[in-house]
Design a protein that fits this description.
Largest sheet: 7 strands, antiparallel
CATH class of the largest domain: Alpha Beta
Helix content: 25-40%
Number of domains: 2
Strand order of the largest sheet: 13-12-1-5-3-19-20
Distance between the termini: 49 Å
CATH superfamily of the largest domain: nicotinate phosphoribosyltransferase
Oligomer: single chain
CATH architecture of the largest domain: Alpha-Beta Barrel
Number of helices: 16
Length: 478
């Protein structure tokens, strides 16, 4: 794990606010914050929650060093008493979260933080930064993987990512969401994402001839020979020289080539011609890999054109989520405690989409027992219990006349305890376990929800008690 101290990776106003809480004798006020998002990237039907492991690592290592204290002192805005308090600063609150790899939907809490104001307020920036970034990349990867069908997708975007941390954590998120590996070696070293790769055009250019470049590579890596055939001319030299190298080097050794890679030009056309040439040469088992600024739409079009591609390497459009580069997760106060009683809080806005759902809540996912498909998410007040042995009527919180009665369903609470009183109570799964869980959860979504374009809307509904409370607060604030 990366043990950098990210404590000061926060908005400066987090520090001025907690200094203010300290000075106003509000530091110990218990607060409840929800982490949720409002809109799905690429106008899709779902997002994938990712980044929990890094949040856990951050919370466990949260501390102000002497260098941090001296820096804050130099700003001349913080009291000496507050700075002295920071020397022993520690998160002692509770955190509940959905599991990494869970499909999540707008306005449904992905994480809830219960802690003293001075603790809960401070962690906002890092939590959002981490979850927003990794959830964005996981969501984009899931769309790309779905468009590729059974063909493997590898993440190749490190050099186009927004810095080394984005490249490495992006590779982690991509693997969780279904990519089979990454070009980023550090992601393998730190997180166990399989590192893969072959050669660049510069390898071919370094040799006197393309053929010599291929034969040398086959001699060095006979068990994983995959050559890049588009440095000069795919059809006239690249594929013919690859076939010659395979015959001259691999066949006498009793080895078979792994494949060839196409990285430019008309990949659909080239793949069809290359497939025919390889088959006629006796290399029908030689795979054809494709890269070059791909995304879910280009992959879909290539396959629609019957391109003979066996695997895809996707770079810049995955690692930056180029077509929809922002995940709009937010961190909003939903309740406080006064004399041991939970007091709901609401944010009101002329923009209806920015009105929050108050109170400390549970999040239930309701599944049809016959199909095991998710029917809806249901938000309730924390003390409500949904009885899945009886009928339950759902209604759209924004159009209450839209109602549906579930009769044969099972429930699952999505928010699980991660920290209790500052102590980690959650057993961290391995990245392979997270990836497997993500695949299983994706299978519970209807295909209509997973469409690339104009997907079916998945409903996030409120219990009657929560809906009544929300609109009571809205009317009160008029």
């Amino acid at each position: 794990m990366n043990k950098k101290n990210y404590t000061l990776m926060c908005d400066f106003y987090e520090l001025t606010m907690i200094n203010g809480y300290f000075e106003a004798n509000m530091a110990d006020t218990i607060c409840y914050f929800d982490v949720f998002y409002r809109t799905i990237p690429d106008s899709g039907g779902y997002a994938i929650f990712c980044g929990l492991e890094q949040v856990i690592d951050y919370i466990q290592n949260l501390h102000f060093s002497e260098e941090d204290i001296n820096y804050l002192k130099s700003k001349n805005v913080f009291t000496e008493e507050f700075l002295e308090f920071l020397r022993n600063y520690k998160f002692n609150g509770d955190i509940y979260s959905v599991r990494e790899g869970t499909p999540v939907f707008p306005n449904s809490p992905m994480m809830t933080i219960r802690a003293r104001a001075i603790e809960a307020q401070f962690i906002e920036t890092y939590v959002l930064s981490t979850i927003n970034h990794q959830s964005l990349i996981a969501t984009k990867t899931s769309r790309i993987v779905r468009s590729a069908g059974p063909r493997p997708v590898s993440e190749f975007g490190a050099r186009r990512a927004h810095g080394p941390d984005a490249a490495t954590l992006g590779a982690r998120a991509a693997y969780i969401a279904g990519a089979v590996g990454t070009s980023n070696t550090l992601a393998d070293r730190l997180y166990g994402v399989p590192a893969i790769g072959t050669m660049a055009h510069s390898w071919v250019q370094m040799f006197p001839t393309e053929l010599e470049a291929f034969t040398t590579y086959c001699k060095l890596y006979p068990d994983s020979a995959l050559v890049l055939v588009d440095t000069y001319n795919v059809i006239k030299s690249g594929v013919p020289n690859a076939i010659k190298a395979f015959n001259e080097v691999l066949v006498p050794m009793g080895k078979r080539p792994l494949g060839i890679r196409l990285d430019s030009g008309d990949i659909a056309y080239q793949s069809k011609v290359a497939r025919k040439m390889l088959d006629e040469a006796g290399f029908s088992d030689c795979k054809i890999f494709a890269s070059n600024s791909l995304d879910e739409y280009l992959i879909r079009d290539l396959l629609f054109q019957n391109a003979k591609i066996d695997s895809f390497g996707v770079g810049e459009r995955l690692i930056t989520s180029k077509s929809s580069p922002v995940f709009d997760g937010v961190y909003k106060l939903v309740a406080t405690e006064v004399d041991g009683k939970i007091v709901p809080k609401i944010k009101v806005s002329e923009n209806v989409g920015k009105i929050t759902t108050p109170h400390y809540k549970k999040v239930y996912r309701l599944y049809d027992r016959d199909t095991n498909k998710a029917e809806a998410d249901l938000l309730t007040v924390y003390d409500e219990v949904v009885d899945d042995s009886k009928e339950y009527e759902l209604f759209d919180p924004n159009a209450t006349w839209k109602r549906k009665v579930l009769t044969n369903f099972r429930k699952e609470e999505l928010l699980v305890p991660i920290f209790k009183s500052g102590k980690l109570v959650y057993k961290l799964p391995s990245i392979k376990e997270i990836r497997k869980y993500c695949q299983e959860q994706m299978d519970t979504l209807w295909d209509e929800v997973k469409r690339l374009e104009f997907p079916h809307k998945y409903y996030v509904d409120l219990s009657q008690k929560l809906w009544d409370m929300k609109y009571e607060l809205l009317n009160k604030e008029k």
